[in-house]
Write a structure and sequence with these properties.
By secondary structure, the protein is an alpha/beta fold. It has six helices and nine strands. The chain has a single domain (9-206), classed as Aldolase class I (TIM Barrel, Alpha-Beta Barrel), CATH 3.20.20.70. Helix 4 links the parallel strand 7 and strand 8. The radius of gyration is 17 Å and the shape is globular.
């Protein structure tokens, strides 16, 4: 999927699927209040994705970064999570520069398929089997989050854990549609491999966005 850089004014506009203030529901920062910005556009195409409506950026309005910043300033947010879709399809340097000017923490959730951009306080890397993750993401990842849908996904998780930096936190997260089946298996795996932790989609249990 090719992005029209001119349409998005070279990163000064972004296709916004939704934006909202809530609690982080997954991974290392679970429970932390944060403003979520979901950017449209994804060419990774996971079959179990729960936000397929985000895949086509053309379906979502191109919003000026300054408008996004004003929306964030209208709530108590101290941290901003950029997610998708696959947000790194876009150059996020300008967005991060503006967020930093407002003294906001910047968090990114990405598969690491596209070129790295932006300045981030926290990088959550969630690689996918059918895509190639760029090496720079393994270097910069604060958190490796691997989705477990099948038993052979554990081997995939281990392969990726060998590539990340020594300070990266390791998480296994059950694919939501199979969480009842996979959770007992993941629990036993973590008990036997304590370098890993379990990530839950706690926002779904709390019934919040």
């Amino acid at each position: 999927m090719k992005i029209d850089a001119e349409k998005y004014n070279k990163g000064k506009k972004l296709p916004v699927v939704e934006e909202f203030y809530t609690l982080q529901g997954e991974g290392h920062n679970m429970g932390k209040a944060a403003y979520f910005l979901r950017i449209g556009g994804c060419d990774v195409g996971c079959s179990w994705c729960d936000t397929k409506l985000s895949w086509n950026p053309e379906l979502h309005p191109a919003i000026e970064i300054e408008t996004i910043i004003e929306n964030i300033k209208n709530c108590p947010a101290k941290s901003v999570v950029i997610t998708g879709g696959e947000p790194m399809m876009f150059n996020l340097d300008y967005l991060c520069d503006r967020l930093k000017e407002e003294n906001l923490e910047t968090f990114i959730e990405t598969s690491g398929v596209h070129p790295f951009s932006g300045t981030w306080d926290w990088v959550c890397l969630s690689p996918k089997k059918h895509s190639i993750t760029r090496e720079i993401y393994y270097e910069k990842a604060n958190e490796l989050k691997v989705i477990i849908a099948e038993s052979d996904d554990f081997e995939w998780a281990v392969e990726n854990s060998k590539k990340v930096n020594k300070n990266c936190h390791l998480y296994l997260q059950p694919e939501w549609s199979r969480h009842k089946e996979m959770m007992p298996i993941i629990v036993e795996y973590v008990k036997n491999h304590p370098e890993w932790r379990i990530s839950l989609q706690a926002h779904k249990y709390m019934r919040i966005p």
